[in-house]
Amino acid sequence: MTRRSSLLALLGFLLARPLGALAAWNEQAFGAKTAADALKGIGASGAAPSKDIVIDAPQIAENGAVVPIEISSNVPGTSAIAVVIEKNPFPLAGRFEFKEGALPFVKLNVKMGETSDVRVVAFAGGKQFTATREIKVTIGGCGG
Amino acid sequence: MAGPMKMRATASGGTTEVRVLMTHPMTTAQSGQALHFIQNVTVKQNGKTVIEAEISQAVSRNPVFSFRLKGGAKGDKIEVSWLDNKGETNTIETAVA
Q1: Which domains does chain A have, with CATH numbers?
Q2: What is the pLDDT of residue A139?
Q3: Per-residue pLDDT tens for A84-115?
Q4: Is B91 within 8 Å of chain A by CB?
Q5: Which residue from A98, A131, A137, B47 has the fewest beta carbons nearer than 10 Å?
Q6: Across chain A, what does the average pLDDT equal?
């Protein structure tokens, strides 16, 4: 191996490592085609209803391609929040893990194929809590 | 392919609000195009990971996220990076204003 190629190999190795560390993606849960399977995939089948999860979203979304949803959890010790759009072809939209230093809050834009309940799960102290909010969609947005 | 990112981080009242925009097609399987979407988003504060997200193709094109961090002071370094299903990645860093 020349000095140059060994340097390139080392560089490749160093670049690949952080990417590898980032690459955790729950294929089973994201590939689920029903909300029940998605919840099972993230370990939230037994989530208890909670009024301490706040979902701020429009009642009616005129454009299903961009539906703004703001979520915060007042459940003490919330360490993660997941968003499940029950009637989407693949219901699980995201899972956000909040470590020391972050507040359990996220605002994002999602696509919705049709009117659906949006279910939010908060993970806290080994337990799961959930709340839903219906969003009516006049023009679906899954073709994007 | 990794388009530009934009980010703003503002400290006020004991929290830091981070708003980040990513340029990405976020194409779904339903669109008839190749599935191409961001899967992982990581937020770091002064080099320490504070938020790790896994997302799906249901996140809208050119994703915009807002996050909130505890505390934070002017000049703190906030870094956000993403990784998509094709292995493309991008990172932006900004100082808290």
Answers
A1: 29-137 (2.60.40.2470)
A2: 78
A3: 999 999 999 999 999 999 999 999 999 999 99
A4: no
A5: B47
A6: 89
Of A99, A108, A143, the CB nearest to B59: A108
Q: Which residues pair with B67 in a beta bridge?
A: A106, B18
Q: Mind listing the domains of chain B with CATH numbers?
A: 5-95 (2.60.40.10)
| Residues of chain A found within 8 Å of residue B71, distances taken between Cβ atoms | 101
B55–A94 CB contact, under 8 Å = yes
Give yes or no for a contact between A115 and A136, defined as CB atoms under 8 angstroms apart. Answer: yes
CA distance B34 to A90: 16
**How far is B32 from A68, CA to CA, in rounded Å?**
24
**Min Cα separation B3/chain A (Å):** 17
Identity of the residue in B28, B53, B63 whose CB atom sits nearest the CB atom of A109: B63
Chains A and B form CB pairs within 8 A to the count of 125
Q: What residue has token string 């696509």?
A: A111
> What is the per-residue pLDDT across B39-65, written as a single tens digit (0 to 9) for each?
999 999 999 999 999 999 999 999 999
**Cα gap B60→B8, rounded to integer Å:** 20
